[in-house]
């Protein structure tokens, strides 16, 4: 893989990671609920899901899914239902994350990791991203090094981006202000997740 090709891959991965959506909302929620450490756990768990998609695309399974619409649609429906469930949970959250802080209850590491990897694996938008844009780079992965770059570039970019988000949000001058608006953030996160679920179902 040439340097220019890798830079193209890097640029697409950066744009994909920086695109606002449910992944960002999830990292924000766990940073508010458990602080910097839980936000970072959620970020890297999410990046593992991204790495799994990269590996699947590299192995050619993405092409198989594309040729099997029933399998693809089934995965998309499961993903949409999961996104809707998380959205409803966020909307039903009483008092938002602020209430959890008041009660001394923090988001635990396992939940942060579970939600991080789930939001990437069950988000059809990410699946479509890899099918539509990422596969072109797989074609030029003609060595072990190139194949490793195909997998680890999106994984590392995603993890670093959301780690940066968690670090910024957990800063002493930022986090208190966000905590005051935690209930609103929960509600907005819920709406975003439900709208994405509806969009996925509508486009099937």
From TrEMBL:
Q: Which UniProt keywords apply?
A: Cell membrane, Membrane, Transmembrane, Transmembrane helix
Is Cell membrane tagged as a keyword? Answer: yes
Q: Coiled-coil annotation: which residues?
A: none
Question: Known Pfam families for this protein?
Answer: LysE (PF01810)
Membrane-related topology note: Multi-pass membrane protein
Keyword Transcription set for record = no
**Localization per record:** Cell membrane
Q: Which residues cross the membrane?
A: 6-28, 40-64, 70-91, 126-144, 150-170, 182-202
Mind telling me what this protein is named? Amino acid efflux permease RhtB family protein
